[in-house]
Amino acid sequence: MGGQVSKQWERRNVVSTEKKTLCSLRESCGHEFPGCDYRPPDRKNWMAGLNPEKVHLNKIVWPGTHDSGTNKIGIPCITRPFAQCQSLSIYHQLERGTRLLDIRVEEDRHVCHGILITYSVDVVINDIKRFLSETQSEIIILEIRTEFGHEDPPDFDSYLEDQLGEFLIHQDDQVFEKTIAELLPKRIICVWKPRKSPQPKAGGPLWSAGYLKDNWVDTDLPSTKFESNLKHLSDQSPVMSRKFFYRVENTVTPQADNPVLCVKPVTGRIHGYARLFITQCFSRGCADRLQVFSTDFIDEDFVDACVGLTHARVEGKA
Known about the structure:
Blueprint: H1 2-29, H2 46-49, E1 62-65, H3 90-96, E2 100-105, E3 110-113, E4 116-120, H4 121-134, E5 140-146, H5 156-164, H6 180-183, E6 188-193, E7 212-214, H7 222-234, E8 245-250, H8 263-271, H9 274-283, E9 292-295, H10 300-314
Parallel strand pairs: 1-9, 2-5, 5-6, 7-8, 8-9
Antiparallel strand pairs: 3-4
GO molecular function: phosphoric diester hydrolase activity
InterPro entries: PI-PLC_domain, PLC-like_Pdiesterase_TIM-brl, PLipase_C_PInositol-sp_X_dom
Protein name: Phosphatidylinositol-specific phospholipase C X domain-containing protein
């Protein structure tokens, strides 16, 4: 018993030290970067506001949400705090400026996070359709994957094509070099990642797993995650030559050997350092690699940071 208490106390000291490390880095380096002072006048239509004829897809910094469909997961005050990564509905995430959604499903077409199950994926699809009906030039990356430990939903590729067919941008390497205006009226890049079923075919309406990559580091230590994100990002090719989307997740996640297991206080250790991360990308020479940037509990400032850098790229200032 004493050994376990000692270990947890040591872990809490490590967390505290890493929090101070990030705080000190921000105090010494600030968080200014090209476009940092830009604020989109309308987050719901921020791509339209940047001029779809000028915005190439490979210049966009996509604000994304991690475990996007968890706003109503679990039982409030009981299991929800251990699995909830977003407090907003899919529609309100999109309205706030999110442009990449991370949706996990299980065999009965319900959204899930681990063993906890929430609403039907139909809720996600309907929220996306509502948002698209209210906007004209916003492009969404929709990642749908079968959650670890679950089976693929039967005929799920056909379901996605039936539900979203009119909006789907077909899998094509040339898409990365095109402007938003050249893709319209198509609006969704749908990346379907089954666990066992066949991957989407080249040229089809769905994109295969290789088109959205990341290096997931499962830790609750904020400086460790921050530095790992920078290292993995620096190993990537620049966005202008890349033929896939690469995601960096500004998140840390609860660990079983730490006494704090609720998502919000744990991910809060890194949540406020998104602008610092972008600043460090410039300082360390890898800003031209940043493309998809995701977070838990997305807020306006996170969106503004991504849109600001996108604006700077479009204007040739970054």
